[in-house]
Amino acid sequence: MSNQFDRVWSWGGRRFWVVALLLAACVGVTRAAPDAQSILAASDRIRNPGRPFAVTTNLLEYRNGVQLDTTTLLVYSKEDTRQGQFRSLLRFEAPARDVNKLMLKNGNDLWFFDPSSRASIRISPQQRLLGQAANGDVVTVNLAKDYQARLDAEEDIQDGDRKSRHCYRLLLEAVTPDVTYRRIEFWVDSDNSRPVKAKYYTESGRLLKTAFYRRFQPELGIERPTEVVIIDGLDTRWVTVIRLSDYAWRDFPDAWLQPDYLPRFKPE
């Protein structure tokens, strides 16, 4: 009887310790932190189609809820496969005073062309185009190519529709000197990689503006944000809205993306 008890206890004891060791191992395993640069790149793919495309961009400026101004652009954009960054040609369609003016982004260089003077001039991506929208805000950009991302936190925030979203908060530091912003806080939905919110800062750390990505709709194969609401960093009553519509796959010649070609460009 004693030997039988010893055999049962011995087997039960070994089984107990195996289970205990497995539980200890499970407790010791921690979830690997997601890669911040990969999170940012996935968000880029939500914002940016992967093939040459065209989109209509409407900018509306508001003060105290009253619309003050508006600008409409037709944007042609394609990715430079060598650099991984986008090249874009923007044609002004409204207001009447600006019709057929052009803006060109090649790499991080921007040019402005006025057909009345037939002159092309270099411009800054930080220069304001309308309200809180800078030149660099209306061209297609892969943030993961121009910024080094660091995962700062996971947290629940309110999106542009005041709905709670569980997000990765990324801190973005510019890796090239000619980008629109030196530092950005960027929130990405942890469930689907959608951009949710961004805060843009000066080099000295002053908040310039806050942006919310809204109105996700099926566009060119996936749901993309079709509205960006930009709020001034000092005066929250000063709001600029960027609306994106009429997405279409649109291949176009590389010649359109050269500064020397701008005087010869003919609207479609």
Question: Could you say how many structural domains there are in total?
Answer: 2
- What is the percentage of strand-forming residues? over 45%
Number of strands: 15
* CATH-level-4 superfamily name of the largest domain: Lipoprotein localisation LolA/LolB/LppX
The amount of helix comes to 10-25%
Explain how this protein is built.
The chain is of the alpha+beta class and 268 residues long. It folds into two domains: 30 residues; 174 residues, Lipoprotein localisation LolA/LolB/LppX (outer membrane lipoprotein receptor (LolB), chain A). The chain contains three helices and 15 strands. The strands form two sheets. It has a 13-stranded antiparallel beta sheet with strand order 6-5-4-3-2-1-15-14-13-12-11-10-9. A hairpin with a 2-residue loop joins strand 4 and strand 5. It is globular. The protein starts with a helix and ends in a 19-residue tail after the last strand. About 10% of the residues have low confidence.
